[in-house]
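Report of the visiting student (M.T.), summer placement. My assignment was to run the structure pipeline on a short list of targets and document each run. The first record concerns Gsk3b interacting protein.
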Amino acid sequence: MEIDCQPEDSIVTSFDEDCVELGDVKDMRLEAEAVVNDVLFAVAEMFVSQSLSSASDVAYINVETREGNRYCLELTEAGLRVVGYAFDQVDEDLSTQYHETVYSLLDTLSPGYREAFGNALLQRLERLKQNGQ
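After the run finished, the structure tokens were exported:
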């Protein structure tokens, strides 16, 4: 999940959200906010946990799927994984798979997310088609 940002990359784009760093360490709290903003449209509720302590190398995200299931997600350099089945809950005995992206993780957890994401893509394609004619 680590992304290298070369100086020449800044010439191509003015801001690369994947390169939010403090010194040599990514700030996972900022990464978590970006994750939330990216998929909020396709879930019932999603926010960065305020009660679980985040650090520069770990952040926790609470998500409620469209089906009403609640999860606590851990975001680290390794990726995202479910660490609890309620908001702000971390079960140390839970051993779940890491996902490289929030899209992959939500795709496995929520058919409603999958449908909302697909519908958003179709709407965007329709708008592009209309603007092109």
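DSSP finds four helices and six strands in the chain. The CA atoms of residues 43 and 65 lie 5 Å apart. I thank the supervising group for their guidance throughout the placement.
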